[in-house]
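Box 3.1. Reading complex inputs
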Amino acid sequence: MKGKLILEDGSVFTGTLLNNIKATGEVVFNTGMTGYQEILTDPSYCRQIVTLTFPLIGNYGVAEKFMQSRRSFVNGFVIGELCDEGSNWQLQSELADFLTRQGVPCLYNVDTRAVTRRIRSVGCMKGIIVPEDATKTEIDELFAVPIKKEVVQEVTTPEVYKMENDGPDVVVMDFGIKQNILNSLHNLGCNLTVVPAHTSAEEVLAMNPDGIFLSNGPGDPKDVPEVIAEVKKLIGKKPMFGICLGHQLISLALGANTYKLKFGHRGSNQPVKNLLNGRVHISSQNHGYAVDEESLKNLPLEVTHINVNDGTVEGLRHKTLPLFCVQYHPEASPGPDDNMYLFDQFWTMLTGSKKGE
Amino acid sequence: MPKKENIKKVLVIGSGPIIIGQAAEFDYAGSQACRALKEEGLEVVLVNSNPATIMTDTHMADRVYIEPLTVEFLEEIISKERPDGLLATLGGQAGLNLAVKLSEQGILEKYEVELLGTSLEAIERAEDRELFKETMNKLGEPIPESTIVEDVASAVAFANEIGYPLIVRPAYTMGGTGGGIAESEDELIDIVIKGLKYSMIGQVLIERSVAGWKEIEYEVMRDGNDNCITVCNMENFDPVGVHTGDSIVVAPSQTLTDHEYQMLRSASIRIIRELGIEGGCNAQYALDPNSNQYYVIEVNPRVSRSSALASKATGYPIAKVSAKIAIGYSLDEITNAVTQKTKACFEPALDYCVVKFPRWPFDKFVYADKTLGTQMKATGEVMSIDRNFEGAILKAVRSLEIGVHRLHMDKMDGWNDDKLIKHLSRCNDERIFVVAEALRRGICTVDEIHNVTKIDKWFLRKIKHITDVENELKEGVITPKLMLKAKDAGLADRSIAEVAGKTPDEIRTLRKTMNILPCYKMVDTCAAEFEAATPYYYSTFHAQEDEVDTSSKRRKVMVLGSGPIRIGQGVEFDYCSVHSVWALRDMGIEAIIVNNNPETVSTDFDISDRLYFEPLTAEDVLNIIDKEKPEGVIVQFGGQTAINLAGALSKAGVKVFGTSVDDIDRAEDRERFDEVLTQAHIPRPKGISVTSQEEAISGAADIGYPVMVRPSYVLGGRAMEIVYNEDELRDYMGRAVQVTPDHPVLVDRYMQGTEVEVDAISDGIDVVIPGIMEHVERAGVHSGDSIAVYPPQTLSSKVIYTIIDYTKRLAVGLHVKGLMNIQYVVVNDEVYVIEVNPRSSRTVPFLSKVTDVQMVDVATQVALGASLKELGFHSGLVPPKPYVAVKAPVFSFNKMADVDISLGPEMKSTGEVMGIDYHYARALYKAITGAGMNIPLNGCILFTVANKDKEEMKQLAKAFSELGFKLVATSGSAKAIQEMGIDAEVVGKMHERSADIIQMIKKGSIHMVINTMTQNQGKNVANDGFKIRRATVEHAIPCLTSLDTAWEVLRVLSFMRERRLVYSLAIQDYVGGGDELA
């Protein structure tokens, strides 16, 4: 059936509605050309309506092994062509069936470039997906639905679990972690204990880990002040590594500020410059907030990475403590694996030796 | 890393003539590099033998040398110019090979020239098979089991070890020359022998065949700071087995998961790092369609054809960035020219689908083996962009200009199902059309076709979608919903009309009343994430927002480009289109260009004010005109492609600038042209236009044999032949053309005289002739295959006067406004007109360069209404320059088995070179050397000529003998030579003694062959002459099929004994009147 995406500024984009499910959410775009399943199941997109700029989606179907979390947390999916019959040896099901099973509202046959251009000029905003014949009342009601802020709670693991290995013990604070971060740490040799987002500092320290990892996750970092308070208590106690939301929480805990980017960084092609060695690597990114560089003045933090496109902060390290964090996704999935060296860096921090030595 | 401060002057080596495997992409790359270097304030010295290029324009480089690309000439230029650096990775394999030789021979060291960009060591590690294998093994990158052999026995031994099928590739060649897939020992031996011959270093690689796997390519960049990015990946529609240059290619990959995409991306980056490439590089992979297993097939350590494609597909200027890296910059220091805000250190994100489709010369080489394999056969390619695959593939098909506008060939309508199914397994230029026809008829399922062809089901389903929509259109009324569906599936109005039994105009009108119009989108490297400044657009029916702003108040004019490179329409026409755009911009007019060739300069995003990457068909162009509403269109620079659209555009109410559509028709329509000639009192060879075989036969009898026959409205002498009697004429009419009242055939008296070619500019009143060119080969050899000499060397002043007079009268009589090209034949000092083309020609770049008259610039201004007087020109011939320029054709026969190399009225050359000098003979020497002909200084010449040529041959043989050559000849020719009292050893023709001549050629005991054809024997591939000529190609021995060429070679040989051969001057010096005392 025909449907449409309506943005808060009144712009309307037509398409075909896969299942007659309405949606409200913040509309964001991702420019990656592959990895739709990884994006759909990345908990950082919780409650957002995700639009993909690449117009041909579903070409290789979906497979269990590409899941980045237990399910898709997106509130809506806006794409160009939805491939009805994918082609790849790993395909286990078609994308349309997956979306239906996951209950994801999907509007396809949309001019997603037009959507992207709109967001680029106005900024990320609220939007709704409705059938073409939705009444004004229905539309108003949907726009009135507030965008839920308690997203970390929704995506974090309900209970503690382990991924055992022979190496150092690492407590992973799950704010909506991607499976490939866990796999990357585990492959490194770390013995992982994954804990829910609201685990207290005391509980974490009671596990006496060799290091602490703070994961990625959805939403505004300032929406979880209680987590920031716990992170503050953990800093300096153990070597620490944070990614994405984890990076923002560490910054806030140390007194820095974060702000919302106009339309965020979401894609697999973002260049990041490592200021320590001058090298540029291409990274996978998915964030709507960034750490304010100005706010770092007089803090014991040093900027280690910046975005080559807009100069925003992409990585920090503590001037004295074994702590570092990055805004982007070294674990890839989707995207390039140019930055896996950061995991090795964490290993060195944990063990005092280089990976492989 | 900042710019290298020690580099002030850079030598750039171009790629030479256009040949199969090395086309216009290197003009694009070289031009971009020159501009990038000049932008940095560096002095640029350019060497290229190809005059048809933009890069050899005097404003592209400070010093331009149009000289042969040989070590001797390069050394001369280096010693003269003393450049600090050499940039060799942008001139294709030819440029790279030359740089390797310059280094090996110590010339770079001697003159203290730094090789910029990728080091020679890195080049060797990528190109030398053994070193490459070692490097890949070290990295742990899988490559198919392989071995390098230098003889046949080792090849067979390897095959016995690992089995068949095997792929054979010669080391150090371009376009895969001499390679092939061997299924058996016999095939293996055959291919290995050839491959050893073609390899510059006498090595071939034999490896396990992974035919049928997915073929994936990555374009990678690396700077001196070790930053790496991938610009683009591409997936071949045709699985491994077909040369990537002959494959339909899609960008980005469509059937790869993120994991597979990243796996191969990471491999590419590991490889470029390990090799230490600085600049662009291309990596090709075979990916198992049923597992994550892959093999690295090939790495090109330089800017390649794929780089040009990737540049156009993404908007990322690979050549420009490579040039900047070569002079020291790192990727994050180079600005992204597209967004002008972000840096070159990022990876383009595409939000559309790109299709590349090869353009093969099989319309010219009807006898060629059309099978596609590891040896590239395409002369050019087209690219198209849309939001879906269906739209892109059909745009590509429309852009090919092969007489089809959808995935349907009329001739297959006559095939029964069995024949169609049989053809599915044949991998040739028509396979995709066979696939579509099978799906259209519903005689095979997608799975069945996949099992035979190994083409990924995703692609097959897309084609099925197109044919399903076609079948739906056949059934009934075209509702708005169905119309939208058809446009979504990429079908042109014309295709919908054909399927639905309507006219294209009806469909176009219906569609417009339904308000189904295309949207235009921008190619911006970043999927709209950032605002972009590039005016690079494509159309789609698969969108709701048109983002192209056309509200500018400036004057706007559209220039139509020339489409894919093919025999008869090469890079020359791109040169003309680009110059016209530049002229318009200089006039303050907004220039809009439409073209579909990714290899060219015209489709570089910063050439025009607006670039539309679209098919050159009436519908696609009219859609753009509807949107842009330009003042008018210029069609005279885009070759026959653009001229062919003039009628339809004019009919639709579009203003055509320059010569009017009616006058174009007066020049092209046989009967109307006869009227023009009669009125102007200009003679032409007697001839008629016929519409049936009977008419042809009675007409020819009337004119008298031999006659020249050809269909009307053609370029490059397509299907043109000289026939000597009625039987041959009947054969021709039945075989080569389909004569109908709408498609008449021209029958002309064949006059054997001197052919002369003129390019002129007229404003309808005055006529400026920048130069006259005399052809070395007499009429009957296509002008594009002849050696042309400026200024004429043998014409009397009376003849020149007559030519000037006729040219003026024709230009005025045809109301030419802009460029025109006329071919004359001179017989006994009488001048006859053969042909008039009211448009720019193949010789315009050559003539512009040597006469220093900016012909396209002037013609553009004239077309828009300026008078020649205002522009400072006087009617008549521009005084000839004191030097001589020779244009020589270059052929790609070594890529095309089963093609007869003898010259005739059908054009066969793929490119051209120029030789320029104050001495005619040295100019000739340069042209012939530049064309790659290895003239032997001594040794043995074989004569085997037709009876009609024997008298003339005697003189020639005498002259060669006097120069000390040993002569051998077939019995008849030998007898004729012996009559002169000259020794000539008799060799047996093949039916006389088994393969005697061929054996001698193989053994290397013959160093040049002079062979002329007895009438039409060449059409039979089984005859001796054909076999001898092919043998010369396989063994790279010069074979002269025209005695005129032989006389000129003799002239060069005599000259070579008296004077130094290597002398060079920059074009700037020649036209500026420099050193005349060489």
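In summary: The first strand of chain B starts at residue 9 and ends at 13.
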